[in-house]
Amino acid sequence: MVFVWSGLGFVALLVPVVCVILSLAVGTFWWDASDNAKAFRALTISFVVGCGLSAVGLWFLGRWMNRRKANGEMNGHTFFFIPVHYWAFVWAIIGGMFSLRMLVVK
């Protein structure tokens, strides 16, 4: 089995999955999705909110996890060889692409 993370790097995938699932669950009950267009819009907004929350969470969590030790060495929490806090930008870009898609598709 190939591990694609080091340390606690798997949280770069775990945090977004949890945030998106929770935001989709809340969005499903929050908005009235009586027809397909409203349902598409509600789920897209929920997904974008989940991506945004996960980006903010990963930034602060990753910065805290990868802080320097007393001797100057850096902790090694990476996912696909990328430090966890940089995955915040990946999830922000994914959320931004879906929000742009929502503006284009009506």
Task: Give a brief outline of the structure.
This protein is mainly alpha-helical and about 110 residues long. It contains three helices and three strands, in the order βααββα.
Topology, please?
Layout: E1 5-6, H1 11-30, H2 36-65, E2 78-79, E3 82-83, H3 87-104
Antiparallel strand pairs: 1-2, 2-3
Helix pairs in contact: 1-2, 2-3
Describe it.
The mean pLDDT is 87. The termini are far apart. The chain is elongated. The longest helix has 30 residues, at 36-65. The protein is built from three helices and three strands. It has one domain. β2 and β3 (82-83) form a beta hairpin. A three-stranded antiparallel β-sheet has the order 1-2-3, covered by helices on one side. With 106 residues, it is mainly alpha-helical.
Keywords, please?
106 residues; mainly alpha; 3-stranded antiparallel sheet; 3 strands; 6% strand; elongated
Q: Structural class, from helix and strand content?
A: mainly alpha
CA radius of gyration? 17 Å
Mean of all residue-level pLDDT scores: 87
Report the biggest beta sheet as strand number plus sense, adding barrel if it closes.
3 strands, antiparallel
Instruction: Please give the domain count.
Output: 1
Cα(first) to Cα(last) distance is: 44 Å
Strand order of the largest sheet: 1-2-3
Question: Got a strand count?
Answer: 3
Give the low-pLDDT segments. Answer: none
What is the ordering of alpha helices and beta strands?
EHHEEH
The helix content, as a percent range, equals 55-70%
**SS field, number of helical segments:** 3
Proportion of residues in extended strands: 5-15%
Q: What best-fitting shape do the alpha-carbon axes yield?
A: elongated
